[in-house]
Design a protein that fits this description.
The complex is a heterodimer of chains A (176) and B (266).
Chain A (H helix, E strand, L loop, with lengths): L6 H19 L2 H17 L10 H22 L22 H16 L2 H11 L5 H8 L3 H21 L12
Helix pairs in contact in A: 1-2, 1-3, 1-5, 2-3, 3-6, 5-7, 6-7
Chain B lengths: L8 H8 L5 H12 L2 H25 L5 H6 L9 H5 L2 H12 L1 H14 L6 H13 L8 E2 L3 H12 L14 E8 L6 E7 L5 E8 L10 E5 L2 E8 L2 E7 L3 H22 L1
Antiparallel strand pairs in B: 1-2, 2-3, 3-4, 4-7, 5-6, 6-7
Helix pairs in contact in B: 1-2, 1-3, 6-7
The chains are: A mainly alpha (176), B alpha+beta (266).
Chain lengths: 176, 266
């Protein structure tokens, strides 16, 4: 009999999986498709998951691999892709209570979107998911030195974009 | 000992992300003090992390599409979508609570979303707290000196018996209260303050009768910690910028007194 994945942990990981997918895809609808595919693959490969290890990191690995594979396929088939097909909606700003906050977050998200995906994902995993560099290297199957150089370039690039931006990076809270 | 400049990228980012051991972190901090350029970069990256969390964390509070929740279930166990709609949720909540912690969290969230309860209440509470807690002149509409009319007023407006817990054993006294616009019904807010002028807010809003109860949940929104829970068809949140353990102690105090006060009403 095949081992079961802990469903509760899977469900608990969903919000973070969705977030990672959105950062990878840069589009909400495609991101949910990627989460779907990731879950399907996780159930198929459940025998490969070792109980007691970090389920979230394992799911991130699956998602990353799926994304990379799909992108490679898309590139190969690029000639066959219709122009209407790839019209992503971009990263949308979550509903925020103040207009000022929305503008700043929208600008930040737009800048994040402009980072190459390799840098974008490392900036997210280290800075927002607070994953250890070793775990990121394992999840992405790259040497830790690669993680560090992507992180370094991604952050510096983002910083320069923000420096050029007219509004400061600091989130200013104003009364609604 | 100071580290040779320039700092390695691993050390600099490790410091930014809090991934260095204490000794190394000290050495890097010393090296940063000696190198204004590196220090400026490190500070900028920390600010960047904060801003990214601010931008990306709200996504975590969004309701999950049913299709994704379904996809998280073992394929053989997926009977049909009907199973999700009829009764399955209540059963899972029971199992979730029984199994506790990690399993419980996910299921409770889902159950809340399924029953239409905005899990964004914690976020609203945090924003409301941030808005009024900094207000020196007019943090509340009705001051604590007039506690009886405050309680009467909140009871009348929220349609639920209001009660101001006594938090003096935690060092907090009541400042007063106000009403805050909520989804369908207004939210009641009570503000407390300690000798260091640190403020906490307790907020509650009645829900539809029969809403599933939940245990404490904890969230941080924009630096404001929030413990929230549902009890007797009412959602509660206690918010503050104090650390989690202290806030939890206060949340337990509030919860205990509310249970006693509610029992006295019945």
């Amino acid at each position: 009999m095949q081992a079961d994945l802990p469903r509760g942990d899977l469900v608990a990981a969903l919000p973070r999986l969705r977030r990672y997918a959105r950062v990878l895809e840069g589009d909400f609808a495609r991101a949910d498709d990627l989460v779907q595919d990731t879950l399907a693959r996780a159930w198929e490969k459940r025998a490969l998951w070792q109980a007691g290890t970090d389920l979230r990191a394992w799911l991130f690995t699956i998602m990353h691999n799926l994304f990379v594979n799909q992108r490679a396929l898309a590139r190969r088939d690029a000639r066959n892709v219709s122009l209407d097909d790839d019209d992503g909606a971009g990263l949308q700003v979550p509903v925020e209570p103040t207009q000022q906050l929305r503008v700043e977050l929208a600008e930040l998200l737009r800048d994040v979107e402009r980072l190459p995906v390799e840098q974008r994902e490392v900036v997210l995993l280290a800075g927002v998911e607070e994953m250890r560099y070793e775990d990121i290297a394992a999840a992405l199957a790259v040497p830790i030195g690669t993680v560090m150089s992507r992180l370094s370039r991604g952050r510096e690039r983002l910083r320069r974009m923000r420096d050029e931006a007219p509004v400061s990076l600091r989130v200013v809270r104003t009364n609604p | 000992m100071t580290l040779p400049a320039p700092l390695s990228e691993h050390d600099l980012h490790g410091w930014v992300d809090g991934q260095l051991d204490a000794t190394r972190a000290e050495e890097v901090a010393a090296a940063l003090r000696a190198s204004p350029d590196d220090a400026a970069r490190a500070a900028a990256y920390r600010t960047q992390n904060d801003a990214l969390r601010e931008a990306f964390d709200p996504w975590l509070a969004e309701p999950l599409p049913a299709a994704l929740v379904e996809a998280a279930t073992r394929p053989e166990a997926r009977t049909s979508a009907d199973w999700l709609r009829y009764g399955g949720w209540a059963a899972m909540l029971v199992v979730g609570i029984a199994l506790g912690s990690a399993l419980g969290w996910g299921l409770r969230d889902l159950t809340l979303q399924q029953s239409g309860v905005p899990t964004t209440f914690a976020r609203e509470a945090a924003f409301t707290h941030a808005l009024y807690a900094v207000d020196q002149r007019r943090p509340v509409e009705v001051a604590a000196g007039d506690e009886q009319s405050l309680v009467t007023w909140l009871t009348k407006r929220t349609g639920r018996h209001a009660f101001a817990p006594d938090l003096s054993s935690a060092g907090y006294h009541l400042v007063g209260g106000r009403l805050v616009a909520g989804n369908a019904k207004p939210t009641a807010l009570l503000m407390y303050e300690n000798a260091d002028k640190e403020r906490l807010t307790l907020q509650w809003r009645p829900l539809a009768p029969g809403t599933e109860e939940t245990a404490f949940r904890y969230d941080v929104e924009n630096g404001v910690g929030v413990f929230y829970w549902i009890e007797d068809a009412c959602t509660y949140a206690i918010s503050g910028t104090i650390d989690r353990a202290k806030l939890l102690a206060v949340a337990r105090l509030v919860y205990g007194q509310l249970v006693v006060a509610d029992a006295a009403l019945k």
